[in-house]
Amino acid sequence: MRAQINAIFISKWTKAVVFLSCLIPLDVLIWHAFQENLSANPIEFVEHWFGDWTMRFLLITLSITPLRKLLRFPLLIRFRRMLGLFAFFYACLHFSAWIGLDRFFNLRDMLADVLKRRFITVGFAGFVLLIPLAITSTAGWIRRLGGRRWQMLHRAIYITAILGVIHYYWLVKSDERKPLQYAAILAVLLVWRFGIWLYGHTKRAAARPPVSSEPTTAESA
Amino acid sequence: MNVKGSADLTYSDVTPKSAYMNRRNFLFGAVATYGAVRGWKKLSNWMSGPGKGSVPVPLQNVKKWPSSTTERVTPIGDTTTYNNFYEFGTAKDDPVQNAKNFVTSPWTVSVEGEVKKPRKFSMDEIMKLAPLEERIYRHRCVEGWSIVVPWIGYPFNVLANLAEPTSKAKFVAFQSYYDTRQMPLGPQAGIELPYVEGLRLDEAMHPLTLLTVGMYGETLPNQDGAPVRMVIPWKYGFKSIKSLVKIRFVKDQPPTTWNIDNSHEYGFYSNVNPEVDHPRWSQKTERRLGEFFRRPTLMFNGYGDQVASMYAGMDLHKYF
User: Fold this and answer.
1) pLDDT (tens digit per residue) in B111-142
2) Residue B176, pLDDT above cutoff 60
3) Which value, in Å, is the radius of gyration of the alpha carbons in chain A?
4) Is A94 exposed, middle or buried, given 0-12, 13-18 or 19+ CB atoms closer than 10 A?
5) Contacts of A101 in chain B (CB under 8 A)
6) Is the predicted pLDDT of residue A156 greater than 60, yes or no?
7) Do B286 and B295 contact (CB within 8 A), yes or no?
8) Is the pLDDT of residue A36 over 90?
9) Residues 6+ apart with CB under 8 A from A200
10) To probe the interface with B, which of A36, A73, A175 has the most B CB atoms within 10 Å?
11) Are residues A204 and B3, on separate chains, in Cβ contact within 8 Å?
């Protein structure tokens, strides 16, 4: 059973299927548009649609590592980069919808919004933070940066996800259930990582060979 | 020594197998439950059909008000599917679905407080207090969108004068219908319900302030505030309280729902004002539903000639 599942993960067809699945939200939106089914306020609908899917793809990307370990399917890693890039893809569409549709390239107003409206400030910051991650997502960049530094850089996705949740939370008027759902899922994903880190940390500390009895080192330890 | 790499540990050292199997089941269970709930909601909406609630009926003998705006009227399909009516859900397309079973008959509106003749009006009486007028007003939501609606009603002061407010009456407090059996989503709205609103007496008595019983030639659809609501065209939409059941003339400024929720963002007056931004977004422009470009927002929503004098000398940044 596990062998079969792993075979599916390795198959390049699976990658193609995942890729196409990630485009479904865009397809559905285009379908809605052709049906003239984008609500009475299509621009807001499109903006929110892409914003929602950005959040979802960020959370899906962040759940790959826990799922790999909990379900013991290390091969899930094969999809993480693609999912992360789709988060960026939907973030770009969300941002473009705001610039091109909502504000119609009114740069002065947009700049004022970024500086003055804190929910836009944090959303914009989260988006900008994703750009270096998207650029350095290639194998070449991993090599150039070195695995450890690359990993450090890519932990910025935690910040983007947190900023994304805050961006959404600050936008809503009173019904905070949806941003709080995202916040809860994100909290689980981050707390899990923290738990693993803490466990590894204490384990390593415990496993450290006893230091020699020189008083200075003992004190500084 | 590379500590990180020295992983002789397997995950079953960290967590016993039974525990992570439980976790896995929990994870699958949670995902499956969530999917099932969402799917069921969609399906039941689709299956529930036309609903058992009250439906609009055509109104006869409606005069055209001569001062209506000549701007393009927003299509009824937009004004009945894009609603803020939190008693029926907080998404714009929730009320049209969830108000389908809202029964608005029989209905009474109670007029009380600082009046010489407190009394209850049945809906039949309200329909006949004055000749019905069709008034096409601009309607600007605090969220930055706007519509143009052919409301049907008559000035609120007609009803007020019948009750004869005493000299102590300085404000009018309004209250919406609230019943969790008819509005099961109310407790999730995130705002205190029943919905309450208020006006200064002169604002309430202003001839533009409309007691509204219909729109687009018919009685009000449930999601637009059936069977009777207020419309105050120079104020943000949330001041125009829906499904009105109680009108109380009072001495002091009454509490209002959005001000209770966040007094920093929603003031008692809430006059449409492009110069006073919402703390989280600009009010300088608005999107008229059906238009691509945002348009500038007008002071008092374009009704300044009629209403600005009521606020002469007031600091509108302070009394927002």
Assistant:
1) 999 999 999 999 999 999 999 999 999 999 99
2) yes
3) 21
4) buried
5) 292
6) yes
7) yes
8) no
9) none
10) A175
11) yes
